[in-house]
Structures are given as structure tokens and as C-alpha cells.
Amino acid sequence: MGRMALSSLGQELYLTRTVRELSFEGYPDVLMMLAAVARKNNGGTDGKAAGGQGSIDISNVFRTGYRTLLELLKSQPEDSAGRFAYMQGRNDTFHELLTMYTGEGDICRINHLDSVDGKRQLGVWGDELCDTVRGSFGNVRPPLSTSSSETVFIPDLKRTFELHHVADSKVGGLATRRFAVTSSVFNKKSPDNACYNAARKHLPSGVTDLGPLQDGVPVVMSLPHFLYGSSSLFKGVDGLYPDEKQHLFYIDSDPTTGASISGRVRLQLNVLMKDIPGFWSSSDLGYTVLPLFWQEVVAEAQEHTLTRIKVAVLAPLLVRCTAIFLLVASIILLLVSFISVIRSRRSRRRVVSEPSKAPKDKVSIYLNGGSFLPTRDNNNGHLKNGAVPAALAQDTPEADALLLHSTAV
């Protein structure tokens, strides 16, 4: 019955579509057309489409097939003409009001979310831990932080990811720390992840449920090619080759400023498939997580931003080196000055005779405030006229003048 119903509408179990159509652009789908008409007829009483679109009975669709579908397609507005895409209408923007911390008062909470539309709970996940608004956007971390993990909130998925420090890296000449999604994020045994799979506890490690976001749709998310996933995910699916270099979800952060320099957000969308009674073509499915496509969002700091970050990183080092240089130079100058003073004092020492040992016929004349010059007198208690002045007037060095003994009477 089910197979016949879908066949009458021109539908098959397997479709071939481009990634653009599956992700954002969308493609016409009969079931989406029916859903659009059902929403319009939701307020009607006789099966007529609301808004004056005419009499369209959904039951006629299954009886007349394409003929009625064409009428449905013509009756739909251009922007909702029964098109389907997994991320239709999403462009990496968030329409809710986000409140976050600026870091004032507590720099460790900079860029961390406080609420969404004034609420601390998302109202999506049944568990309080998973449903609580927490984490940051991952673009800014606290400066000089030595933390080994980072909690990142993704608005479109309404959940957080715990990124761990896995390696030191280098981007644009800057030494960075790499924070990445590890195997614990999608591990079903992890308490932090189990609450996201409360509605589908049978899911293996490596995937997480997205059903609560869209009325229970059978869609799950993983890392590309089921990286870090359970071996059971690879059964029945060919062409999967997980590789950390190509499929890792990571952010490279500058440890000094806390700014994110580079990042790769890589996630894969999968659909849950299982045997459906009445569809012979699905008898070989069993229970399979079927990969649809994976997406990579790339973020790289521009050259002028890198230059500013380099200046901010090098500035403290330059200040520290300059301070050390000035300190060393000051010490050297003090030592040189001290040695000069010592040498100057030694060169000014004088060879003198103590007054108590001088002959009685000599008297001492003090020079330079500390040395004295012995001279003869005239036997009458007066200094010999012109003895010392004559020596100094002849440009006799001071030290020689001090040794000069006048003997003339």
C-alpha cells in the first residue's frame, strides 16, 4: 500500500540530488507540498484551502496523482512551493536575542553566553544540563588563559560542544593552541553527551540526535566520515575514510590575546534508515545511519588582523626587554661612576709629614684643605717670604709642591 501510494505520486525511496539542493537551495517535493496544503487547510472545515486558494481535497491527491499535484504547485506562493532542504532558510545567522558577558569584572567570562531571548533554558532538550545556555562562540577566549578546554555554543544546533587542547600549532607566524572536538563529544557513555540522545538512546557512539530541533525528524549529526564513530556505523555504507587532517573540528587560538586565528567547523548530516513495512525496496536496509553530506565552515584571520595580534603579542616582550636593558645599563653606569670616584680620590692622596714630626724651624701650610706643606721660618716666627707662592707660580705640580722644602734663609 505504501509503495503504491508513493508511486502514484511519482516518488521513489531513493533520490539523486545535488549537495546544494539538499543543503540550502531545496528541491520540489510532493510530501512538502502536501504539508503546505495541510497547514493552509488547518483552519478550514470542508477541506478547502484557506485564503481563497480554491477547493483542494488532500484525499484527491492520492487518487489523481500528478494532476492534482500540479494544481497544488500552482496554488503555492513562490517562497513555499513545497520545496525541501535540510538547512532551508538558514544562513548562519541567529534571530534570537543573545546576551553575553563582556569580561568586565571577570575576564574569564568574556564572550560567554548568559541567555537567549532572556531565558537561561533553551526549551529543546529534556535534560537541564543540555538545555542550559552555556559556552561561547569560540572566537574569543580569556587572554593568557591556561585552560585545557573550551565550551563552544552553536546557535543553529542549540547545543554546546566541548573542545579540548590537543596540540600546539602555528598560523601566520603566530604560535597558537589548537582546541578540537574529541571522541568524548559524541560518546554515548559520556554524561555530558548522553542527555542529547535521551529520545534515541539506541544511537551508537559517534552520532548525536537532532530530532528535538525539528519535531522528531530522523536526522542525526556526526563528524565527517563518522570520525571517532563506532564501528557499527560503517556497516552497510561504503566510501567512508575518516581522517583527522581532513575531518577534524578545531579552533586555533592565540594564547596571549585569546583571539581565534583559524578554525574549521566540520559536521556531517545523516538520516536514520530502517525497514519500512510495505516497501520492498527497503528490505535490505535493516537499521542504518545513512550519510547525506558534510559541511566545512572555514574561518581565517586576515593579514591586517594578524599584524595587530602580532604587535599585541610582541609588545609585552619588547617592554620587558627594554626594562631589562635599562636596568642593566643603569647598573653599569653606577659602577663606572663609583670606580671613577674611587680613582679620583686615590689620585688626590698626598705625601705629607705629620705636624708633630716636623722640625722646629718648620711650620706647616695646609693646602687643598687636607695636605700641609712644611717650610722654614726666618727664625723670628714668620714664614719665609715667597717660598710656597714661588713654587706654585712656577707651575710646579701640586704633588711636587707638597714635597718641596724651602731651605733658603
Shape verdict: elongated
Task: Provide the β-strand percentage band.
Answer: 15-25%
Mean pLDDT: 76
Share of residues in helices: 25-40%
Q: Count of DSSP helices? A: 11
User: Unreliable stretches, pLDDT < 50, 5 or more residues?
Assistant: 44-55, 360-373, 383-387, 398-409
Oligomeric organization of the protein chains: single chain
Keywords summarizing the entry:
409 residues, alpha+beta, elongated, disordered C terminus
Detailed description of the structure:
With 409 residues, the protein is of the alpha+beta class. It folds into four domains: 2-80, no CATH class; 92-301, no CATH class; 302-347; 355-403, no CATH class. The protein has eleven helices and 14 strands. Strands 5, 6, 7, 8, 9, 10, 11 and 12 form an eight-stranded antiparallel sheet that branches.
Would you summarize the structure shown here?
With 409 residues, this protein is of the alpha+beta class. The chain has eleven helices and 14 strands. One of its GO terms (molecular function) is scavenger receptor activity.
Q: Could you outline the blueprint of secondary structure elements for this entry?
A:
Elements: H1 2-8, H2 19-25, E1 27-28, H3 30-40, H4 58-64, H5 66-75, E2 83-84, E3 98-100, E4 113-116, H6 128-131, E5 149-154, E6 159-171, E7 174-181, H7 191-194, E8 207-209, E9 219-222, H8 244-247, E10 250-253, E11 260-274, E12 287-300, H9 303-347, E13 362-367, E14 371-376, H10 387-393, H11 398-403
Antiparallel strand pairs: 1-2, 3-4, 5-6, 6-7, 7-10, 8-9, 9-11, 10-11, 11-12, 13-14
